[in-house]
């Protein structure tokens, strides 16, 4: 009898994947934080899952016979997810291809980098500066809440319309910066939000935004949709931090991020 072997990740590789994802699920549709406190004060809980992009053994989802065992075990072949999303991507591999999972991972890690270094830290800094000018903070939030690109159904958002909307938003953010002292906490938040939008444009620049349309069978549309979901997630976390700093309740889909943040489920700096 032959025993099947699996090229499982090492503990250090699983740990690296979790850290790179900031212990958040990499699925752009999911807000779950996968680490937290245990009832025992000496322990922590981890509910995340290091999912193989290409399966660890023959017969598994997206198995690639041309990979070496070392390649299957490498962090490059893994994506960090909550357990539920990990089960979903492995039981429906036709809906989650190798290309999609690699893009999902890249988008999520880039988002974490943006928020952790530019958005999240700047928003938290507001708490240390007396929450200056709450009316201005409300103006920032209102700019985003009024944009359909952040709440409309994806099949209703044509890429060219997304581009025009975000270009207009960037102009509005630049105009608001003219009202702030350069380097002040709220100016830093405006800079961070603008950088996040620019990062999105850098991700989708390879697509023809004038002709691209919603099509679940088009790899380019699926990549665009993933990038847009990641943008919404990144902006959502930053606005939630800003709203929480000032006690400003968010509206629409942004309220979901604020609720997640309040429960400790949405902190990219965790």
Concise account of the structure shown:
The chain has 9 helices and 4 strands. With 270 residues, it is mainly α. The strands form 2 sheets. It has a two-stranded antiparallel sheet with strand order 1-2.
**What class would the helix/strand composition place it in?**
mainly alpha
Head-to-tail CA distance between termini: 47 Å
Question: What is the count of β-strands?
Answer: 4
- Work out the radius of gyration: 20 Å
Treating each run of at least 4 consecutive H or I residues as one helix, how many helices?
9
Q: Tell me the overall shape.
A: globular
Mean pLDDT: 86
Order of helices and strands: HEEEHEHHHHHHH
Across the major sheet, the strand order is: 1-2
Proportion of residues in β-strands: 5-15%
Tell me roughly what share of residues is in helical segments. Answer: 40-55%
Identify low-pLDDT runs: 266-270
**Major sheet description:** 2 strands, antiparallel
């Amino acid at each position: 009898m032959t025993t099947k072997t699996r090229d499982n990740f090492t503990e250090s590789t699983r740990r690296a994947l979790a850290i790179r994802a900031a212990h958040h699920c990499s699925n752009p549709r999911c807000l779950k934080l996968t680490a937290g406190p245990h009832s025992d004060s000496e322990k922590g809980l981890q509910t995340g899952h290091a999912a193989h992009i290409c399966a660890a053994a023959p017969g598994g989802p997206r198995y690639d016979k041309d990979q070496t065992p070392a390649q299957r075990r490498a962090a490059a072949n893994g994506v960090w997810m909550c357990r539920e999303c990990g089960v979903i991507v492995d039981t429906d591999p036709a809906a989650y291809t190798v290309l999609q999972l690699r893009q999902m991972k890249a988008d999520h890690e880039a988002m974490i980098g943006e928020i952790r270094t530019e958005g999240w830290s700047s928003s938290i800094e507001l708490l240390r500066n007396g929450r200056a000018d709450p009316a201005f903070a409300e103006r920032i939030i209102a700019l985003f809440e009024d944009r359909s690109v952040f709440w409309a159904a994806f099949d209703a958002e044509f890429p060219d319309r997304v581009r025009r909307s975000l270009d207009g938003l960037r102009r509005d953010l630049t105009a608001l910066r003219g009202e702030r002292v350069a380097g002040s906490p709220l100016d830093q938040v405006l800079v961070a939000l603008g950088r996040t939008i620019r990062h999105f444009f850098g991700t989708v620049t390879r697509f023809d935004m004038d002709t691209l349309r919603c099509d679940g069978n088009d790899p380019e549309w699926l990549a665009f949709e993933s990038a847009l979901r990641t943008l919404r997630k990144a902006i959502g976390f930053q606005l939630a931090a800003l709203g929480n700093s000032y006690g400003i309740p968010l509206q629409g889909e942004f309220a979901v991020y604020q609720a997640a943040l309040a429960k400790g489920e949405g902190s990219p700096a965790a």
